[in-house]
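Supplementary material to the annual report.
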Amino acid sequence: MFETHQFNTILDKEFLLENYDTLEYLLEVFGDFLALMPEEVEEIKAAQAENDKDKVVRKIHAISSAVGFVGGIDLSDRMKKFEVKAKNDPDFDIANEESQAIVNEIDAFIGIIQQEYNQLS
Amino acid sequence: MSFQSNIPMIDTDEQTIWSNKYVRFFKSTIGIHNTIDNMMGVLLQSLKKLDIAEKIYYVHFLPSGVAEIAYSTDASLVGLKIPFSKSHDLTENTFRLIEEDIALFSFEKTARKVIVQAIKTDHTTGLLVKVCAEDANIHTAYRYFSLLCKIRFEEIVSTYQTTTDLTELNIRFESILSKSPIPIVFVDESANGVFMNTKAYDLFGFSSDEPINSQKIAEGFSNLITKLQNKEEVQAKMQELMFSNSIDRWRWKFGAPINRTYNVITQLIHVNRYTGRIWIFEDVTIEEQVEERLQVINHQLIHLAEKERRDNVMKTTFLANMSHEIRTPMNGVIGAVSLLENTVLSNEQFELVNIIKKSGESLISLINDILDYSKIEAGELTIQPEVFSSVELFDDCVDVFYATALEKSIQLRVMLNPNVPVYIRADRNRLRQIILNFVSNAVKFSPNGSWVTIKVSARNIDGKPTLSCKVIDQGKGIDANEQELIFDRFKQLTNKHSGGTGLGLAICKRLTEMMDGIIGVKSKLHEGAEFFFEVPFENTDSKPILLGDLFIKYANTEACIWTVDSQQAVETFEQYFKDKKLELVAFGSPEKFFESPQNSPSMILVDSMQVKGELEKAIRVFRENGVSEQVPIVVMSYSHEKEAKEYARLGYSDMMIKPLKLKNVMKMVEKWVFKTVVQQTVQKQEENKPEKILNDHRVLVVEDNEFNQKILKRILEGVMDEFDIVDTGEKAVVEARKKKYDLIFMDIQLPGINGIMTSKLIRETYQDTDQPFIIALTADVFLKDSSALEEAGFDDYLPKPYRQKEILGKIENYLQRQSHMVL
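Predicted assembly:
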C-alpha cells in the first residue's frame, strides 16, 4: 500500500487511494501513463507549431482525463477550461502564451509522475 | 547645297530691298494701339505700302466655323464670307500661293494670284490673305519678307490679346473685391500699389472719395488698433508677422461704436519679384456669439453629464450592494436546496425541490435585471455563447412559473417543433431571461383557467439558423398604440396592478438586439397577445441532432398510447407521433375511447384535471370496458394534488408530474411501452465491489484513448470475464450488430462518428425491447449537470476522470437491477 507515501502536492492523493487499491496497480497505471503520454504531448507541440487549433484542442481534450486518472485533478480541470476557451473563441491563437503554458505544465506534470514512479518503485 | 533649275535665282539687291521693307514694316507697327480696329488698321495699311499685293484682308472664324473678312485694305470687302472653313488645310499653311481663275478669294473678275497665310496666336486663328496681280513675281526674297511680316503680325495680335486679357482681369478683380462684403486691404512692398475695397474704407473710417496711399493705410491701421478691446493681444501677435508670412486665426475685437469681431487673415504674397501683403477682415461677430453661447451650453452639458454619471455610479453601486445583500441569503437557500436534491427523494419531492431551486435562481436573475439594465446602458454587458440543451432551457422556464400559473389555474405548455436542434450554441442565460420575462407577463395578464403556450421552432434567416420563440397568452390583448411603447424602458401597460420594474421588456429588447435578433408583439384587443423573438444561434455540428430525431426509434414500434387529456395538452406532443407506427389516441373522457373501435393500448395516460379528479371512476371505465390489468395507466397530475400522492392506491401504475415535458413523456414511453428501466436521479453509493455475478451480461466499451481503455479494462476485469473494447464509433456499431450488449460505456468525443451519433445508430440496430443501457463517458464540461445526454438517448453519464467505484456503481445499478427485473 502507499498510504504513507508523501505524494507531490500537485497530485490528488485521495483520488489515487480511492481508485488504486494496491501499489502494483498504481505503478502499472503510472507506467502506462509514462509510456503513452510523452508521445501525445509531442503531437500537441507539433500541432501548435503548425497552428492547428482543432488538433491541439482535440488532443488536450483526449489526455485531460488521463491526467486526471493519475491524480492531476486540478490540471485536468484547467485543461478542460482551456479547451472550452479555445473552442469558443474563434480568434484564439493556439500558439499564444496561455497555450504554451498549458503544454509546458503538462510536460512538467509528466516529469512529476516520473519522479513518483521512481520513488514508488 | 543645290538649287532646283526651275527656281529663279534672286539677286542680292532684291533681297536687300525686301529686308529693308520688313524693317520699315517693323518700325511702322511699333507703338500702343489701344483698340483692335486701330491695331489692324496700322498693320494692314503698313503692309499694303510695302507689299506687292493689290489688296490685303484678314479673315477670322465665326463661332459657327464660317470664315468672314474682318479687316481689309479694301473696305468694301469687310463682312464678305470666304469659301473655306476653319478645318480647311489653309489654316495650317504659313505661306500658300493660289493661282485662281475664278474669283474665289480675290473678288475680281480676272485671274489673280492669292497668297494665304495662317495667323496663329494662343487665343485665335485667322488668315492673312493677299491678292496680287496675275503676273506678280512671287520670288524667294518676297516669300521671306511675307513670312517675317506674318510673324510680326502674330506677335502684335498676341501682345494685344494679353494686354486686353490683363485689363479685363483687372476690371473683374477690382469689381469683385470692391463689392465684397469683407473688408480687404492690399499694400505692395514698394508701397506704390495700394488697394482698399469699399468695406475696408468703411472699417478704416475713410470717406469713399478720399485718395489713399500707403501712409494713409498705416495711419488707418494704428487708428484701428487703438479701438480694439484686445489691443495687447493683437499687438503681441503682430510681432509674429516678423517671423511668419501668414496668420490664420487672429481675432480683432472692437467695442462700441463698432461692436464687431473680425477674424483677420493676412498673407504675404510673393510672385517672382513682386511682393505685397493682403489683409482680409472676416466678420465673425455672429459666429463668435454662437460659439460663446455653445461654450456656455457645453459647459452646462458637461456639468450635467458629470452629475448624471456620478448619480449613475451611485445608483449602480447601491443596486450592486442591494442585490448582493439579497443574493447572499438566496444563495444560502439555493445551496441548501441543492444539498437536499442530492438526498434520497421521491419523484414528487424531487420535482418540488427542483422547483424551489429554479424559482430561487429565477429570483436572483430578476434581482439582476435592474443591474443588467445599468450594465447594458453602460455598455458593460456582453453576450456569452455556450452550448446547451434547447429542451432544458424551455422546460426550466416553465418550471419557474408553473406554481404561479397554477394559482390562477393557468396551464403552461411548451410546443417544441421537431426541427429544433437538441443542442444549440447561444447565450443561454440571456435567452432564458427573455423567455422568463415573456412567460411572466403572459401568466400575469392571462385570465383564470386559460393556457399560456410557448411555441419554439428553428428556421434559416439569411443563411443563419435562428431560434424562433412565441409566447402566446389568452389575455385581454394590447392596444396598437401601446404596442409601440411597450419595449421602451419604464413603460408599463395601463394595468396599474401589474407590478415589476417596467424594465423587463426594455432589457429583452436590448438583449435581443445585442444577439442580432428581433423582438416584437402581435396583439388585438380582447384576443390575447403573442410576444415573439428570433435570435440566431450556432449549430454544434454540421448535421445537428434534431428533437424529431429522438423519436425515430419509435417509428417502427407498433403500439398505441391512449391519453385522456385536453386538446391543448395533446397538441403539445402529437406532432412527434405523426408518421410513426407508435400511435397517440386522445379523447376528453375515458368513455369516448369505447364509442368507436381503437387499437389496443400499450399505455394509458390520464390527466387528473381533465377527469376533474375522478380518477377512480376513470380507471374503472377502462377496466370495465376490457382494458387488461397488464396495461399500465399513468396519471398526469400536479405534484400538490392529492391524486399525485395516492396514485398507487387508486390503481394507477405510475405518475407523471405536470407541467408536461417532452422528456417525461419519453421516459414513460421507454418505461411502460418498451419496458426498460428509467434511471433515477439518486445513485446508490456502494463501497464494495460487486461480485462476478455479471457473466451473463455483455458490456462494450467505446473509448479511443489507449490509456483510458486500460483504466476501464482493469476495473471491468474485476467484475466480469467478458467485455469488449473498441476505439471508434464505427467499430462499435459493427460489434453491436454482431452481439447483443446489455451495457455500453460510450466516450462522446471519438474520431469519425461521435458518441452521440454512434449511440443513435446502435439504438436503431436493436429491437425496441432489447435496447442496451448506454452510459456516456466524457470530459466535456458542457455536458456536465445537463440532461442533454438523456435527451439524446443516453441512460446515464459519468464525467472523466471517473472513479472506480462510480463505474462499479453504474454496472451494479443497471445490470444487477436488470437481472432482477420482471419483464
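Residues 1-6, 494-500, 676-693, 819-823 of chain B have pLDDT under 50 and may be disordered.
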